[in-house]
Amino acid sequence: MTSTNESSTHSPVETAAVVAHSRVDVHAAVERVRAVAESAGVELVAEPEDARLAVAVGGDGTILRTLARLLGTGIPVLGINFGRVGFLASIAPERLETDLARVFGGKYRTIEQPTLEAQLGGETFVAVNDVVATSSTLGRMIELGWAISGEDLGVVSCDGMICSTPSGSTAYNLSNGGPVLVRELDAMAITFIAPHSLDARPLVVPRGAELTVWNATPDVGAAVLADGHRSGDLAPGRMLSIRLGEQRSLLATLPETTFFGRYRETFTS
């Protein structure tokens, strides 16, 4: 079940792109990145798709959006934390110059992370973090039927359901009491949102096990969100299928940065 790949041998970075949070004043941080790049002889390009490495300046949202944008390109994303949590980030603001210079010199690891592939009404979409089915009417509970690999697991009254990747397991899934999946796991977590049941426990399923969700509520619709963005509607009787996708997101980290170290620093300190 351990199919996450890591590479720690890289030649020095020749081209890089900076992606910054549009709603946070990180102008000074971007200028610091530019100064490090100039000193290291790294050319900064306008489009991340044209770079050897993308540097995301912001929080986890900025990093996730950049990871999603670069799916299939082979370009890794390095996060510099200027957000509230920054679990996916590898560089702290106070170490920007020192650590980024090391990365530009080739001293970084690339971690492959699984994605989710969802199908709804003939449409297919990919999520880096999570796919959520939630009540479209504020304050109204819905009934969601669910099955794994075709085996019916019943109907749960709840506010919704979260299906997350390992990288997404520390986001909305975690805040709803779901399990944290370490990066090496090639699996997805399924967590109900505010279930009206003592038996609706989170479940972790491996690659190859497809989740099917349907709206069993006769008079309340549900919205489907991929990485926080509305991707469609789950009308009464409609079905949604989710599985681990073939595409992988590429996260760049410092060689000494570990999942458990970041977990300790972010959630237990």
Structure, explained:
- The structure is a single chain.
- With 269 residues, this protein is α+β, with helices and mostly antiparallel strands.
- It has 2 domains: 6-108 and 254-268, 3-Layer(aba) Sandwich (Rossmann fold), CATH 3.40.50.10330; 115-246, Tumour Suppressor Smad4 (Sandwich), CATH 2.60.200.30.
- Helices cover 17% and strands 39% of the residues.
- It contains 5 helices and 17 strands.
- Strand 2 (15-20), helix 1 and strand 3 form a beta-alpha-beta unit.
- Helix 1 (27-40) packs across helix 3.
- The longest helix has 14 residues, at 27-40.
- The protein is elongated, with a radius of gyration of 20 Å.
- Tell me the major beta sheet: 11 strands, mixed
**Number of helices, where a helix is a run of at least 4 consecutive DSSP H or I residues:** 5
What proportion strand? 35-45%
For the record, the count of structural domains works out to 2
Q: What's the average pLDDT?
A: 92
N- to C-terminal distance: 30 Å
| CATH class call of the largest domain | Mainly Beta
Order of helices and strands: EEHEEHEHEEEEEEHEEEEEEH
CATH topology of the largest domain: Tumour Suppressor Smad4
How much helical structure, as a percent, in the residues? 10-25%
CATH architecture of the largest domain: Sandwich
